[in-house]
User: Fold this.
Amino acid sequence: MNGLTLIPLLIYLSLLPLIAWFSSRKREKNIDEYFIGGRSMGGFFLAMTLGATYINSSSFIGGPGLAYVFGLSWILLASTQFPVMLLILGILGKRLTKAARKCKAVTFSDIIAARYQSSFLTNFSSIVMIILFIAGAAMGASGGARLMESMTGLGYRPSLFIFFTILTVYTTFGGFRAVVATDVLQGFTMIAATLGMGFFIISSAGGVAAAMEKIHTIDPNLLSPTSGGNLSPFYIGSFWILVCFGMAGHPLMAVRCMTLKNDLALRRAIILGTIITGTIMLGIHFNGLLGRLYLPEGTLADKVIPELGVNFLPPILSGIFIGGLLAAVMSTVDSFLIMITGTLIKNFLPQRLQKYKFSKGINLIICLFILILALEPPAFIARLSILIVGGVESVFLWMILFGIFSRRINAVGATAGAIGGLASYVGISLWMLSTNVMAIFGVHQIVLSLPISLLCLIAFNPLGKPISEKTKAIFFES
Amino acid sequence: MTEEQQEVITTAENEHPKEMPKDRTLASFIVTFAYLIWWIVTAFFIDSPDILGIPGWFFYSCILGFGGVIIAAWGIARGGKP
Assistant:
């Protein structure tokens, strides 16, 4: 790789700690600030952090690679997520921010504790989050390092150290506010990478129509909604539940909905978040498909986007693009890190240790632990990481939605729903892994686990006690 | 009241975000489901010639669909103005 490629990449990497320092200096030093950014998030920041956290390496690299393999039908699959920001913010934003202020919640598990008043449910949720997010962070770090290795030629370990040291520094010293501030840069880098490559690749193909025609001559199935019968409409459609509807139950999204400054922030974030997330997703998947014109037949799906970025872009653009790929990974991993620390401190440590300085120390220890895991990721970590989206949704979706919309649902019902959702998702996923099938009854397993979770919740809810007046006041009265 | 004034008022300590109409929640749900229906119908049930060189089904479901979601998001955010 040449020097011109390195310049934008180095600028990007060195800006991250600087931005973190800039955003978090002269702020109050308390855990409200450290874990939730002082509840003062404006619309633009909220939109960028939601988008950057939502987009991870599987949607920025894996998905576009599959668009290269399956054609427009995989872009159709990705386009199920267009309303996701509207949905998350529209249904959670106001209610979670209000409730979080009333009960002084700084982490997602505080909200669960305040709503359901059950230490078993709170601890269960916290343990699920900590374990899965550690797996997510470790796999993310390892994936990011491998990406950097393949694109810069540095070895795996040096790449991991560089990449992870930067993450550790800015999350530890800046906390949530640094995570959000760096998400803005990371979001912009992803936008620049997506649009830059899009313009370059479309103009060298001679326009969209010409590109489509060339793709048609390569394989007409690439332009059919079912990829010529390779993907069923039910399978494609089931991703609407996984990447759109179910995301309303993801703690990484919900915790951001606890931090709104005011209604104006919410309204701006709804518009900006929808535009930004949709543009990046549509653009990067389209780039993956157009990779057909430049990459040899049979390129591995996960290699498509990195190969395009390194080999088919002019040096400076290529540097920005590599930065964009790292941004997709980092912006998700940093959110995992701060969330693990917050959950651990608020739930498993005595009150007197829930302090600002101590939080920094714990975050540092967690980062080291994840670094060690990522050096040689154990097989069970890779197994666990398939649960990060679907498994988490199966545990939390109904817990959150009923938690803020229905005063009839109590701790017993929510616990049954969470356990039923997790057990069914894990069971079905393991069965699918062992028999090596891609879909169950032709759909993604989330389509089965969410109804099972809902049934458990409804069946066991009558056994619990009605919620207290105090809880009602926090969650259901303005 | 201008937006700036409103912002100052609602950021006062311990102040909750300004009350938003209940319908915004409902509208977000409806748009999410309506988009799914639009997406299914246009992707799998419409036989249309190419538009601007792009296959018709893709143009309607993904490109027009995205535009529609943005307009809906804008409408919901604007419409909720207190």
Observations:
- Chain B touches chain A through 47 residues (CB under 8 Å).
